[in-house]
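Hi R.,

Here's the chain you asked about this morning:
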Amino acid sequence: MKLKLAKEYGFCWGVEKAVDKVKELLKKKKVAYCLGPLIHNPQINDLLVKRGLRIIKDLRKAKSGVLVIPAHGLPKTIIKKAKEKGLKLIDATCPFVENLQQIVTRLSQQNYQVIIVGEKKHKEVQTLMSFADKAEVIEDISEIKDKKFLFEDLTAKIAIIAQTTQTRKRFAKIIKELLKKEFQEIRIFNTLCRVVQNRQEEAAKLAKRVELMLVIGGKESANTGRLAEICAAKRETYHIEAADEIRRKWLKKKKKIGIITGTSTPKFLVEEVVKRINEIQT
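And here is the predicted structure, written out as tokens:
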């Protein structure tokens, strides 16, 4: 049996920066809260909780101290309330997401209606909505074709952006459909994360060369889920969070196994998966 690891795996630099920032904060023994998980990886969040980070679901539970803004950002209303409570803010927003927030803010100031290609329930998208005066989220091309978005005012200025972890293919399809609406003005911003795009391309190539793909990362991670989706279209694929999820029957008669991770998956999980596969195979 031969293992093939993707050329790129483990944390991307933006996630690593966020995690390192919180680790340094916790070294100072300060009371620190995070509204929701810092990143979409349960093992890393558990590690930070053990070091003192308090992950909360409701801002009211943060009485005093430091509030960490997670990698996907926080809505402007939440940030305002945190400041009113006297909480000190530590911003661990991914630089790519922060740049996207700035783009949305600028577009709103210029009176553009912002169209976000992304997932309505994803925290990155929900945060982006708070930075826009007028915004709509489109998850799938069918929403346009089924006329859920009527866009009655074709004289409106439209700006199309993407959730950073979307696939280029989906983004392009939705842009093509929106261009048929013949708005007076449409601006398009390629806000897809380059690191995520590289990993998606690597996943597609690797899946063609193996008999089984293991995609490692949090089940809530959008970019990891996208990798699993890409791989599953080409090869038998399993999206796992940890090595103990691997089943012997998956590996039966498999001579080539490919491994790739989401951008919020630490390298030590890859090492544990490799160890588990070797144990099963011996």
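One quick note: The domain at 13-93 is CATH 3.40.50.11270 (Rossmann fold).

Cheers,
M.
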